[in-house]
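Input record (Table S2, row 253):
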Amino acid sequence: ELKNVTVKYPIKRGLLNQIKAYKIAAKSINFNLFKGEALGIVGESGSGKSSLALAIARLISSEGEICFQSQNLNQLNQKQLRPLRRDFQIVFQDPLSSLNPRMSVEQIIAEGLHLQNISKQQSNVQIEAVLAKVELSLEDRSKYPHQLSGGQRQRVALARALVLKPKLMILDEPTSALDRSTQMAMIQLLRRLQQQEQISYVFISHDLQVIKALCQNVMVMHQAEVLEYQATELLFTQPQTEYTRQLISASEY
Ligand code: ADP
Ligand code: MG
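Output record (magnesium ion complex):
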């Protein structure tokens, strides 16, 4: 649950770089997300979606409450957050820049696991299981990111997050760099994972059709504010704002 979450970036000006003003990237955001559900966040570029995603994952600071399993993440320091971190994972749009090019698929997925005390054998078992979950083949484990397609790279990013068995996944435009058919295969995979593992998703996209295929609820952001927040089905049949109506017709190409 988010209660009045606001993200501000300081704007430095003047000779001494004093902070005199703030850019508000997300303003007083509220939402509820239940276990196993997906919330879509839609909005044009610059509307504040990624800032909100980073704030939820506590990668940037924000005001307000971010309640996760009855704890307000914004009241915890980095040390207190550490044991919770694996429960919420974030996946970004461009897998090529978020995957280390010098690491093999296996090493990328194992990286998070090594932080826990598990044997090489246990880690192998988990890596094989997660590769199967994201529908990559076992031969892919020794490949490097540049040897994979865009869709395969995004599956590796997903596997890296999934292997930690998160309760919440924040997906920031995870399909935007992919072509339409790869996109839809990815959505089907996410939907299956959601049903199997009861993961909750915050799914960010500028494409309403992609959100429609995955999310029960949707939030429309525009210039840092929420214009509309309702069940996805209702959004399509009874959009509350002209802006949403335009988004819907623009997505129906
Ligand atoms: P979206 O993901 O919807 O495209 P962003 O959250 O990236 O939007 O950006 C929202 C607004 O905040 C934009 O005006 C952007 O320029 C600004 N912004 C994003 N990151 C920073 C930053 N690190 N410092 C200052 N302004 C930023
Ligand atoms: Mg963004």
